């Protein structure tokens, strides 16, 4: 594998009286790793890294994060620049295809998304089968997987010539599925996408228009949703993206890989945190707590509580996305004339936590989920749809990571090892001779 700045250096490992040389690999931004791919064949040992905190699972050209400095770049471009100047669809092109599109490329990409925005009409019957209180993340993952059944070519091995359409179909239809699942959960008639609308406006239209009355698209609202998507578009090897790569490494199709990503995202320690943050803020508000009781509980391991939206495996500094979202939150609420007490609680929690030695020593800062829920709430997105919004935003990253795996000639199936700590050799006992209740 070619890496930039590859320094002619090795790490030396001493084990059982022998010395082994392991290559040191260096990334574009001078991040360093020890290549242990020959460790087991050379030494008979594997490495142990519970939770993969120190494990590099791949080389990737998509996203760079420096968690100590709070830096995030898509294909080398700082997130702050993209947030200010770009749009979600332009960024999706950047992430998936590696470059900002020319105006011709952007038009082609947009047209492709528009041409592929409709679900196959028979997909509508699948929505009927879910109970009305089904969680939309369950519907989303099922329906993304089901979509592939309607396009048999999707099930074929990766083909660069059909990838463009498949990627557009997934990116465009994830939004249609999300809107349909919301309408279904409310017992409302389905609203079809409107080709004239751009990506984020179209989602708001499908969620909130009525057959007899179009939803009023306020530019600031559309822009805020687009920004939320843009800020979530990729984040290197997190739980859901690694899941996508894991599934893709078995040569599963794009839709199966993305459906698995949705499931990985769902948990409250990952994408589900945006829902958990809002629930936490609502509970604090309801109790009339000024936040101090909750902070005390979050510091007490026995309470089982955590300050949701705080802390990150990689960021040991303010998450750059959280900074942008916090600013956007203030601007949007002012524009819409909304005075949300949950925003005040969130700000108070942040101020208290950032001065508290528990959070300071552990380098726990607000992450992307801390303020995003307040924006989504202001946009009228119901709380159970928050993680779905995250999944829509993350789709370009999953597609790009899928593509990296699919196009890699060196790709081997992902297959970690383990250290077995169960019983030693044991033997079958017939049921009559077994003791115990
Ligand atoms: N509240 C209170 N304590 C925390 C929090 C928190 N939010 N996050 C971490 N800690 C504490 C841990 O208890 C641990 O303390 P210890 O050293 O005394 O045992 C220490 O900080 C390190 O935490 P870990 O869980 O080991 O950190 P890890 O990197 O495994 O987890 C995670 C990161 C899952 C994000 C964690 O910080 C967390 O649970 N945060 C709340 C949930 C959340 O906001 N998730 C969204 C993350 S961003 C995203 O996925 C999009």
| Outline | globular
What is the share of helical residues?
Answer: 40-55%
Strand order of the largest sheet: 1-2-3
Termini separation = 56 Å
Summarize model confidence as the mean pLDDT: 94
Q: SS-based structural class?
A: mainly alpha
Beta-strand share of residues: 5-15%
Largest sheet: 3 strands, antiparallel
Measured on Cα atoms, how large is the radius of gyration?
A: 24 Å
Order of helices and strands: EEEHEEEHHHHHHHHHHHHHHHHH
Instruction: Count every beta strand, where a strand is a DSSP E run of 2 or more residues.
Output: 6
- Tally of separate helices: 18
Bound molecules: acetyl coenzyme *A
Flag low-confidence runs: none
Which tags fit this structure?
single chain; 437 residues; mainly alpha; three-stranded antiparallel beta sheet; globular; binds acetyl coenzyme *A
Can you describe this structure?
This protein is mainly alpha-helical and 437 residues long. The protein is 49% helix and 6% strand. The protein contains 18 helices and 6 strands. The chain has helices spanning 39-43, 79-85, 88-97, 103-115, 123-128, 136-147, 160-185, 199-208, 219-231, 239-248, 254-266, 273-287, 292-299, 320-335, 341-354, 357-361, 369-378, 386-407; strands spanning 10-15, 18-26, 32-34, 63-66, 71-74, 77-78. The strands form 2 sheets. A 3-stranded antiparallel β-sheet has the order 1-2-3. Strand 2 and strand 3 form a beta hairpin. Helix 9 crosses helix 18 and helix 10 crosses helix 18. It is globular, with a radius of gyration of 24 Å. The chain starts with 9 loop residues before the first strand and ends in a 30-residue tail after the last helix. The mean pLDDT is 94. Bound molecules: acetyl coenzyme *A. Residues 51, 238, 269-271, 273, 298, 306-313, 362, 364, 367-369 line the site of acetyl coenzyme *A.
């Amino acid at each position: 594998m070619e890496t930039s700045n590859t320094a002619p250096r090795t790490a030396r490992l001493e084990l059982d009286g022998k010395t082994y040389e392991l290559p040191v690999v260096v990334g574009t931004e001078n991040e360093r790793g020890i290549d242990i791919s020959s460790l087991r064949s050379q030494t008979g040992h594997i490495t142990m890294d519970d939770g993969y905190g120190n494990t590099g699972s791949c080389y990737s050209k998509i996203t760079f994060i420096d968690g100590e400095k709070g830096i995030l770049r898509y294909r080398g471009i700082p997130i702050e620049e993209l947030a200010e100047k770009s749009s979600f669809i332009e960024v999706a092109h950047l992430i998936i295809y590696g470059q900002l599109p020319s105006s011709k490329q952007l038009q082609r990409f947009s047209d492709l998304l528009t041409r592929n925005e409709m679900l196959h009409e028979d997909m509508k019957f699948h929505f009927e089968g879910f109970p009305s209180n089904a969680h939309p993340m369950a519907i989303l993952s099922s329906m993304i997987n089901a979509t592939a059944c309607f396009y048999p070519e999707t099930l074929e091995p990766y083909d660069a010539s059909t990838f463009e359409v498949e990627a557009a179909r997934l990116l465009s239809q994830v939004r249609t599925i999300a809107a349909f699942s919301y309408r279904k959960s409310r017992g409302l008639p389905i609203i079809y996408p409107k080709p004239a609308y751009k990506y984020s406006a179209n989602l708001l239209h499908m969620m909130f228009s009525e057959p007899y009355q179009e939803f009023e698209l306020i530019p600031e609202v559309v822009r805020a949703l687009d920004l939320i998507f843009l800020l979530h578009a990729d984040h290197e090897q997190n739980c859901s993206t690694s899941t996508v790569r894991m599934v893709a490494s078995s040569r599963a199709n794009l839709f199966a890989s993305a459906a698995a990503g949705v499931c990985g995202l769902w948990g409250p320690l990952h994408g589900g945190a945006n829902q958990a943050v809002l629930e936490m803020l609502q509970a604090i508000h309801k109790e009339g707590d000024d936040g101090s009781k909750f902070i005390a509980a979050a510091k007490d391991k026995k309470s089982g509580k955590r300050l949701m939206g705080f802390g990150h495996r990689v960021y040991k500094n303010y998450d750059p996305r959280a900074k942008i979202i916090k600013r956007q939150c203030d601007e949007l609420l002012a524009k819409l004339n909304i005075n949300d007490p949950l925003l005040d609680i969130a700000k108070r929690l942040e101020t208290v936590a950032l001065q508290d030695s528990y959070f300071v020593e552990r380098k726990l800062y607000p992450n992307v989920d801390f303020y995003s829920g307040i924006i989504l709430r202001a946009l009228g997105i119901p709380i159970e749809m928050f993680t779905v919004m995250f999944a829509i935003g993350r789709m370009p990253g999953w597609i790009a990571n899928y593509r990296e795996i699919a196009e890699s000639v060196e790709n081997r199936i992902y297959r970690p090892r383990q250290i077995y700590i169960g019983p030693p050799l044991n033997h079958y006992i017939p049921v009559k001779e077994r003791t115990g209740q």
